[in-house]
Amino acid sequence: QVQLVESGGDSVQTGGSLRLSCGVSGATVSANSMGWFRQAPGKEREGLARRCRGGDATYYGDSVKGRFIISQDSAKNTVYLQMNNLKPEDTAMYYCAVYSTCAASYPQKWGVGTLVTVSS
Q: 47-80: buried (b, 16+ CB within 10 Å) or exposed (e) per residue?
Protein backbone atom coordinates (compact mmCIF):
# COMPACT_ATOMS: atom_id res chain seq x y z
CA GLN A 1 0.00 0.00 0.00
CA VAL A 2 1.37 3.38 -1.01
CA GLN A 3 1.74 5.91 1.77
CA LEU A 4 2.99 9.49 1.56
CA VAL A 5 3.87 11.57 4.60
CA GLU A 6 4.45 15.29 4.20
CA SER A 7 6.43 17.42 6.62
CA GLY A 8 8.12 20.79 6.82
CA GLY A 9 5.12 23.09 6.90
CA ASP A 10 5.47 26.13 9.13
CA SER A 11 4.54 29.75 9.63
CA VAL A 12 6.86 32.20 7.88
CA GLN A 13 6.89 35.84 6.87
CA THR A 14 6.58 37.18 3.36
CA GLY A 15 9.78 36.59 1.42
CA GLY A 16 10.78 33.60 3.49
CA SER A 17 11.61 30.08 2.38
CA LEU A 18 10.56 26.58 3.36
CA ARG A 19 11.43 23.09 2.19
CA LEU A 20 8.70 20.51 2.31
CA SER A 21 9.52 16.81 2.41
CA CYS A 22 7.45 13.81 1.41
CA GLY A 23 8.50 10.38 2.58
CA VAL A 24 7.08 7.62 0.38
CA SER A 25 6.57 3.95 1.17
CA GLY A 26 5.04 1.26 -1.00
CA ALA A 27 6.25 2.94 -4.19
CA THR A 28 9.56 4.05 -5.65
CA VAL A 29 9.71 7.79 -6.35
CA SER A 30 12.08 7.35 -9.27
CA ALA A 31 9.68 4.91 -10.93
CA ASN A 32 6.64 7.15 -10.61
CA SER A 33 5.51 10.62 -11.56
CA MET A 34 5.43 12.65 -8.37
CA GLY A 35 4.08 16.07 -7.61
CA TRP A 36 2.78 18.61 -5.15
CA PHE A 37 -0.52 20.41 -4.99
CA ARG A 38 -2.14 22.72 -2.47
CA GLN A 39 -5.55 23.68 -1.32
CA ALA A 40 -6.51 26.79 0.58
CA PRO A 41 -9.80 27.15 2.46
CA GLY A 42 -12.63 27.87 0.05
CA LYS A 43 -10.42 27.44 -3.00
CA GLU A 44 -9.93 24.71 -5.55
CA ARG A 45 -7.00 22.34 -5.58
CA GLU A 46 -4.01 23.89 -7.36
CA GLY A 47 -1.28 21.85 -8.98
CA LEU A 48 2.15 23.26 -8.14
CA ALA A 49 4.88 21.01 -9.45
CA ARG A 50 5.24 17.70 -11.22
CA ARG A 51 8.32 15.56 -11.76
CA CYS A 52 7.83 12.94 -14.43
CA ARG A 53 8.89 9.35 -14.04
CA GLY A 54 12.59 9.09 -14.73
CA GLY A 55 13.15 12.65 -13.61
CA ASP A 56 13.76 14.04 -17.08
CA ALA A 57 10.96 16.55 -17.06
CA THR A 58 9.47 18.89 -14.48
CA TYR A 59 6.46 21.19 -14.71
CA TYR A 60 5.32 24.07 -12.55
CA GLY A 61 2.13 25.99 -12.09
CA ASP A 62 2.24 29.59 -13.25
CA SER A 63 1.78 30.97 -9.76
CA VAL A 64 4.91 29.27 -8.44
CA LYS A 65 7.14 29.13 -11.51
CA GLY A 66 10.55 30.57 -10.68
CA ARG A 67 9.93 30.35 -6.92
CA PHE A 68 9.32 26.64 -6.20
CA ILE A 69 11.55 23.70 -7.11
CA ILE A 70 10.62 20.02 -6.98
CA SER A 71 13.35 17.47 -6.42
CA GLN A 72 13.79 13.97 -5.12
CA ASP A 73 16.31 11.79 -3.32
CA SER A 74 16.02 8.27 -4.68
CA ALA A 75 18.18 6.83 -1.90
CA LYS A 76 15.77 8.20 0.70
CA ASN A 77 12.69 7.66 -1.50
CA THR A 78 11.70 11.21 -0.67
CA VAL A 79 10.31 14.10 -2.71
CA TYR A 80 10.98 17.72 -1.81
CA LEU A 81 9.45 21.07 -2.60
CA GLN A 82 11.75 24.04 -2.08
CA MET A 83 9.66 27.17 -1.75
CA ASN A 84 11.29 30.58 -2.00
CA ASN A 85 10.03 34.15 -1.88
CA LEU A 86 6.85 33.05 -0.18
CA LYS A 87 3.77 35.26 -0.36
CA PRO A 88 0.62 35.43 1.76
CA GLU A 89 -1.32 33.87 -1.12
CA ASP A 90 0.84 30.76 -0.74
CA THR A 91 -0.91 30.02 2.54
CA ALA A 92 -2.55 26.60 2.17
CA MET A 93 -2.37 22.93 3.00
CA TYR A 94 0.30 21.31 0.84
CA TYR A 95 0.06 17.74 -0.39
CA CYS A 96 2.49 15.37 -2.00
CA ALA A 97 1.05 12.99 -4.57
CA VAL A 98 1.81 10.13 -6.94
CA TYR A 99 0.34 10.19 -10.45
CA SER A 100 -0.38 7.35 -12.85
CA THR A 101 1.23 9.32 -15.67
CA CYS A 102 2.97 12.67 -15.89
CA ALA A 103 -0.04 14.16 -17.67
CA ALA A 104 -2.69 12.77 -15.34
CA SER A 105 -5.17 15.37 -14.15
CA TYR A 106 -5.78 13.79 -10.77
CA PRO A 107 -3.40 12.06 -8.35
CA GLN A 108 -3.64 8.38 -7.55
CA LYS A 109 -2.65 8.83 -3.96
CA TRP A 110 -1.73 11.68 -1.65
CA GLY A 111 -0.80 12.27 1.95
CA VAL A 112 -2.55 14.10 4.77
CA GLY A 113 -0.77 17.33 3.97
CA THR A 114 1.33 19.88 5.80
CA LEU A 115 0.23 23.43 6.57
CA VAL A 116 2.08 26.47 5.28
CA THR A 117 1.14 29.89 6.58
CA VAL A 118 2.71 33.06 5.20
CA SER A 119 2.12 36.31 7.03
CA SER A 120 2.61 39.80 5.64
A: bbbbbbbeeeeebbbeebeebbebebeeeebbbb
Count of CA atoms in the C-beta half-sphere (13 A) of 23:
4
CB 4 within 8 A of CB 96: yes
- Confidence (pLDDT) at 7: 98
Q: How many CB atoms lie within 10 A of CB 8?
A: 16
Q: What 3-state DSSP class applies to 84?
A: coil
| 53-111 confidence digits (pLDDT tens) | 976 789 999 999 999 999 999 999 999 999 999 999 999 999 999 999 998 989 999 99
**Closest listed residue to residue 114, CA positions, set 97, 102, 89:** 97
